[in-house]
Every structure is written in structure tokens, then in C-alpha cells.
Amino acid sequence: MGKSSNSLTGYVGTYTKGDSVGIYSFTLDTERPHIKDIQVAAKLGNPTYVTISDDNRYLYSVIKDGELGGVAAYSISSETRELTLLNSQVTEGASPCHVGVDKENKYVVTANYHKGTVELYKANKENGKVAPASSIVQHEGSGPNKERQEKPHVHYSGFTPDEKYIAVIDLGIDKLITYANNDGVLEEVSSLSVKRGSGPRHLEFHPNGKYAYLMTELSSEVITLSYDNETGSFKEFQYISTIPTDFTENNQGSAIHVTADGRFVYVSNRGHNSIAVFCVNQESGELTFIEHTSTEGDWPRDFVLDPSERFVVASNQDSGNLVLYKRNAATGKLELVQSDIAVPYPVCVKFLN
Questions:
Q1: Half-sphere exposure in the Cβ direction for 300 (13 Å, CA)
Q2: Whole-angstrom Cα distance, residue 240 to residue 286?
Q3: Which spans are transmembrane here (predicted)?
Q4: Whole-number Å distance between alpha carbons of 29 and 31
């Protein structure tokens, strides 16, 4: 599976149940366009979230290994795009649900939903391997939703645009907490409590670094935030629903992504089974709703914009299919291209740059 000018390589993280065995790869033909060549890229347990280093040399995945959980590092062949396991770091207990890596490939950070922890690992930028966690922070507290917020549930951890800080989202305690990375040791510098019971899940920054957008799982909203890169602090100034007002069935907000030009925000809805599109006011950072597009399946988890941002690929966990859309760069709207791409229990999709 080599690289050509009109094809892109993507990877899909999955839940390893049913027919699923690990990470899958695919090729996006950008000329036709269509997705093809679905194949197993790596066999491992519950690689539900993966991330790729900026230089395309390494892929990092969360991993479940029996009663152990942690992070695995893979090299990516520059010729064939095949994955080769470098090493893994696992400890007793549940596996993480999110993983991020810095631009220099020096640190990997994970969020552990079940443990309520954020864990920082030093990475070797020369060979891609990860060392045992150098810092683990245990969150405390609970929220008003007795079923989902009975304890901390860390759902996201990622680097701020200048990588001065690490932003961590805790669904269980309705908080966005900022940590400094002091040579591999996490130190809290700021904390924002969002609307009680909203269940914050994932965060994405506007490319100008002044705004950030926080997707909530329990209330199905996007919270628009201002960000101070000096102090690492956030302030909320807008809440906007991701589902229609007359939709009364169960919905859980999932992923959120911002376009490179900062003009549009996309989010996925599990239950409503849609991607919601929002336009960004470039002066204020506020969002305006544009449209909902069906995900042509059940329970969409993550989705991804390809490097050119001409296409979007969504993953429907429960119906086991990927969906390919064309994206209109002027209007932000999505046009369905292909919806019959079978991948078992897909969760996360990432492209090589």
C-alpha cells in the first residue's frame, strides 16, 4: 500500500469485539473519489483511539492487554504504510480512551475514562518508543448525573497550540483542567467548571489559538471558549445545541473538529446519528448552526477531515461502517459519496499527512 499523488492512507481504531481484531488501514482515492483496500494494520486489544506524529513516522494507540491497559507505539513505513510494533507501556486496570502526542514527538499523553486519570509518558523522538508513565494525576469528585458522573471520567488530554500546556477534559466532574508539563511532571495551573451535568468530552482549538470549542456528551452542546495562552486559562461565552430542539430520543455528543482556516466546526451526534456543521464568526469566535448531515449508520464516534479538507470520513460504531463525504470549503456543507465501507466497531479515524 504505497503512496501516490491521488491516494491517502488512513487508519481506523476499533473496539475488538465481534469480528474486529485491532487497527485497520484504508486508502482514499481522491480522484474518483472512494475508499478501498480495507485491511488489518495491527492486531491489538481495543485500540479505540489512535494518533499520528506530525512527521508521519509513528502511530500511538491506546491498548487493552488482558487486565492491563496503556499505550502502544508503532512505526509507519514510509514506503508501504505498514505498522510495526515498537513497544508498549501497560499497567493494571482499564485502558485509556484518548491519546495525544506533541509536535516534537517527545511526550505522549493519555486520558483514562474508567480510572479518572491523566498520564504523561516521555517518548524517544529518534525511535518512537515510549517510556513508563512519568506522571499520573488522579482526579477527584463527581457530578449531578448519578449514572454517568458518579466519579471522575477523564475523556480527553491534548496539547495546547503552543504546547506550553496540556488541556484535560473530565466528563465526570464537568471540568476543563490545564496542566503544565515540568520535564515530564504534570502540574495543575488552571481549572474551569462548565455547566453542571453537561459532561464535557472533547476539545479543539481555533487555528488562531484564541478560541477553543468543547463538545459535551451529556447535554449535546458545543461550548465556545476564549483561551489565554499566558496563564493557560479558559473562559466560556457561548453554549449552542448540536441536535434539533424537537429531538427527544437519547443522544450523546462525541467528536469535534475545526477546519484549518478556522471557518467551520463539525461535531458528531450518537443517537441523532448526524454530523452538525457550524460557521465560526472570525471576530467573536461564536458559532452559528448551518445543517445536520446523516451519518448513514448507527452511533457515530469520531470522524476526520483529510489533509486537503476536501473530504470527511465518519465512523459508525454500531453499524460497522465508514462514510465518505465531499466537503464544500465555501459553505462547509457535506455531500455523501460512499457509505458502505465495512469496518467492524470503528471508533477513531486518522489520516497520514
A1: 28
A2: 9
A3: none
A4: 6
pLDDT, tens digit (0-9, with 9 covering 90-100), for 149-187: 999 999 999 999 999 999 999 999 999 999 999 999 999
Do 299 and 323 contact (CB within 8 A), yes or no?
no
pLDDT digits (tens, 9 = 90+) for 186-201: 999 999 999 999 999 9
The reported pTM is 0.97
Positive/negative CA dihedral, 330, 334, 335, 340: positive
- Among 63, 111, 112, residue whose Cα is nearest residue 87: 63
Residues in the chain: 353
**Based on C-alpha coordinates, what's the Rg of the chain?**
19
> What number of CA atoms fall less than 13 Å from residue 151's CA on the CB side?
8
For residue 33, say if its preceding peptide bond is cis, omega within 30 degrees of 0: yes
Distance CA 189, CA 313 (A): 36
- Does residue 5 carry a pLDDT above 80? no
CA-wise closest residue to 153 among 116, 119, 118: 116
C-alpha grid cell, residue 246: 424537537
